[in-house]
Specification:
Layout (H helix, E strand, L loop, with lengths): L15 E2 L5 E5 L5 E5 L10 E2 L11 H8 L9 H6 L12
Parallel strand pairs: 1-4
Antiparallel strand pairs: 2-3
Length: 95
């Protein structure tokens, strides 16, 4: 009996992230997941999910990146941020 926050959902993790998703999911009492459209979805249209945690201001960027592979709101290439030892990934110590 794994808490829903600690589960990897093979279908949901294959969907792309969007701040305006076109699907929503609900965990049922028996542990399964129901995926529902938020509105009309045309045949062939890609399904988008909103990853959990992206609005959690307490989640450090490096943790979000390792969990989801991107940092919301950051458009600079991650390689540049790491090369420059950005405070996003390398917190600066007080002098």
């Amino acid at each position: 009996n794994i808490p829903t926050t600690d589960r990897l959902e093979p279908v949901l993790d294959m969907l792309q992230h969007s701040n305006t998703p076109n699907i929503k999911q609900k965990y049922t009492d028996d542990g399964s997941i129901e995926i529902m459209a938020r509105g009309g979805i045309k045949s062939g249209e890609e399904l988008f999910n909103k990853y959990k945690g992206e609005e959690d201001i307490n989640m450090p960027y490096h943790k979000f990146f390792t969990r989801f592979g991107f940092v919301p709101g950051v458009t600079e290439p991650v390689a540049n941020l790491i090369a420059e030892r950005s405070s996003i990934f390398f917190p600066q110590r007080a002098a």
